[in-house]
């Protein structure tokens, strides 16, 4: 698998509403099922396309991205009042142990899926907290999204998360994307 970051020059593509055909706001919220007082993280938040969708339903969203230029784009698009931008890699998060009630990741897992990152997520999400991972599927067609050799299958993603101590709640295998919901 190739690990890389999404090019900032193509950030405008992340704001295209047609992306909802791969993951809608509604399904993301249904899977995360947050409480209004939850503190959650958007892992690899990019331009904030999904941070803005989740923000009205939680207390705080930490929008985590390692590219400061993506945060600049996020500010330009509009920063919700309860979204805090965090410049960090998902493998080294500036959060206390068990600090997060939950986290979500859209189309980014394949860019950061290392053992170190999975362990870091298990450290910062509190026991019982939910992690929702939506990403391009290795069982997809490759017609949209990254090349097939960069992707993981639903079973691989489940295995990575279970190895880090998460428990599987749901897995969805769709035409082009996977969705995996686990609990710490
Ligand atoms: C494909 S974009 C998706 C952005 C957003 N999740 C969305 O769906 O609109 C991936 C984003 O994750 C960020 N990223 C990649 N690897 C990362 C890592 N290890 N830690 C933090 N951010 C990362 C990239 O900088 C990029 O902004």
List keywords for this structure.
single chain, Rossmann fold, 184 residues, binds S-adenosylmethionine, 6 helices, seven-stranded mixed beta sheet, 27% strand, alpha/beta, 25% helix
CATH class: Alpha Beta
Q: In whole angstroms, how far apart are the ends?
A: 25 Å
Q: State mean pLDDT (0 to 100 scale).
A: 95
Quaternary structure type: single chain
Instruction: Sketch the major β-sheet.
Output: 7 strands, mixed
Looking at this structure, what is the CATH superfamily?
A: Vaccinia Virus protein VP39
The proportion of residues forming helix, as a percent range, comes to 25-40%
Number of strands: 7
Plain-language structure description:
- The chain has 184 residues and is α/β, with parallel strands linked by helices.
- It has one domain: 3-Layer(aba) Sandwich (Rossmann fold).
- Helices cover 25% and strands 27% of the residues.
- The chain has helices at 25-32, 51-54, 68-77, 109-112, 115-124, 154-163; strands spanning 39-43, 60-65, 83-87, 100-106, 125-136, 167-173, 177-183.
- Strands 3-2-1-4-5-7-6 form a seven-stranded mixed beta sheet, sandwiched between helices.
- The two termini are 25 Å apart.
- The mean pLDDT is 95.
- Bound molecules: S-adenosylmethionine.
- S-adenosylmethionine (SAM) binds next to β2 and α4.
